[in-house]
Amino acid sequence: MSAVGGRDAGRKGADRPPIVVYEGVVKRFGAFTALDGVSAQVNRGEVVCLIGPSGSGKSTLLRCTNALEAIDSGRVVFDGAPLPRRESEARHVRRRMGMVFQNFELFPHMTALENVAVGRSTVLSEADGTAKVRARALLAKVGLADKADNYPSTLSGGQQQRVAIARALAMDPEVMLFDEPTSALDPETIGEVLGVMKQLADEGMTMVVVTHEMTFARRVGNWVIVFDHGRIVEQGPPAQVFDAPREVRTREFLSHLGWGGDSG
User: Fold this and answer.
1) Residue 245 confidence (pLDDT)
2) How far apart (Å, rounded) are the C-alpha atoms in residues 215 and 218?
3) 157-169 helix and 112-122 helix, angle to the nearest 10 degrees
4) How far apart are the C-alpha atoms of 260 and 200, rounded to whole Å?
5) 3: CB partners within 8 A, 6+ apart
6) Does the pLDDT at position 66 exceed 80?
């Protein structure tokens, strides 16, 4: 499946089978249509950034990607197979995707180390000691080796989000999903989290990122998808979307944010 208008030239991983494909995805909440025929794809090893106004469907699409929300019509295809409808089967697919939420969602009664290790010990039935060895390595990866024994309440927002990223990575996911990971952070800690995400991108992790951080999308993203009222209004490489947007709605959205190229 090619991108809108067939403009996949130069897209990272365009010569490989995509890992996630959205085919005419529709999602309704009662009378409200959150996603209205969304079609796009995510290639292996690329960072796809979903941007657009709040409430435009970005986070809903992310939750449909790992079957946290069931779609009403269309298909989400992961690694060549449609997402299963049965929850027991969906859980198996979900293990292959790491998800990082806006508000961390760490277990308050567990230390940082225990939060990162818990998935491997409970879901993968890995020995507790082995799981904690892996957890320590991941805490070091996100710059928190010295915070292993801290509880979430003693960590800053940026530190908590980095623990959440380490927890998601602990399951060795094939795709990482980020739902506005910096929206609950103060300006001083946003850079901590974006730095870890850039490191993952540099290492070749496949990532789908819902974000209002336009500079991150412009500099780190390989493909940018612009949403408005549940539809994709434009998608393409960052240089095209940010520097030469084709659609009026894209220009309006970026102008509203005061975007001015790399200074954004």
Assistant:
1) 95
2) 5
3) 20
4) 26
5) 11, 40, 41, 223, 235, 236
6) yes
